[in-house]
Amino acid sequence: GQAQIYLDNAPSEVKELAKTFNMMLSRLSQSWEQERQFVSNVSHELRTPLTIVHGYLQSVLRRQKNLTPAQQEALETAALEAERTIRLLQHLLDLARADSGHLHLRMEPCVLNDLVAEVVNMAEKYSDRTIKIESTTKSIEVRTDYNRLKQVLLNLIDNAVKYSEADTPVIVKLNQQGEEAIIEVCDQGCGIPLQEQSRIFERFYRIDEARDRSTGGYGLGLSIVKTFVEGMGGTVTVRSRTTTYHQTSRLNKGSVFTITLPACSLLE
Ligand code: ADP
């Protein structure tokens, strides 16, 4: 008898539950939105003064020719830390924007080879590493947000340089397969253990503080890469072997980050 009564009453109870649940959900999403807004505001407010501080530091470093080595070093450290923090704030801003669907990507047709050449030039200046480009086709055309894709590739090349030895090559490979443009950023560095490979795209995830500390990131670079690339209708994946696993051979060690983007024709 009781089970029957219970069942009779169930629909309205379920309705009540659903109502409560929906109310909770709307409160939750309200507070998520507030949190995003907060992160976005704070990042923005901090970025502006820090950019000014960084600008002044740079100008002192450029103009003052008679700094003592200690002063020079102190100013350089300050400038570097400011730069690092500005980058963090930019990343937080971008992620907050992406979360709230306001990451307006400016998609336009462009030649991938030119974009990559530009990025590699920039990266070579920053890092003093020779970065090789290998391309199967002279001009691969994609529809993308030019500046964001540059940022994505800079992040990947930056990592490739950071996590490999100075005497090993970093290679960017370009390739087109049917409707897909493929960019691979390859290094012969320390590699990424299999069990970590899916996690490195998470926000603030760094494999190992001991191993990563000296490289000075925040574990946001790859989550930005993923957010942007997926926003552009593409994918990003990683293949990697760790150095310890492949101690005896220089083949196959290191990491390969692969980006695919829908190719297009500029004539369309
Ligand atoms: P970070 O700014 O800390 O480098 P990322 O999001 O760019 O953050 O990368 C997350 C983690 O993935 C890094 O801390 C690093 O341990 C690992 N990683 C990324 N790229 C490479 C690479 N090319 N080789 C080895 N490890 C890498």
TrEMBL record:
Catalytic activity: ATP + protein L-histidine = ADP + protein N-phospho-L-histidine
Chief location of this protein within or outside the cell: membrane
Record's GO cellular component terms: membrane
Signal sequence, renumbered to the chain: none
HAMP domain: residues covered: 1-33
Keywords carried by this UniProt record: ATP-binding, Kinase, Membrane, Nucleotide-binding, Phosphoprotein, Transferase, Transmembrane, Transmembrane helix, Two-component regulatory system
Molecular function via GO: ATP binding; phosphorelay sensor kinase activity
Start and end residues of each Histidine kinase domain: 41-265
Keyword Nucleotide-binding attached: yes
Name of protein: histidine kinase
UniProt source species: Halotia branconii CENA392
Residues of the full protein shown: 219 to 486 of 486
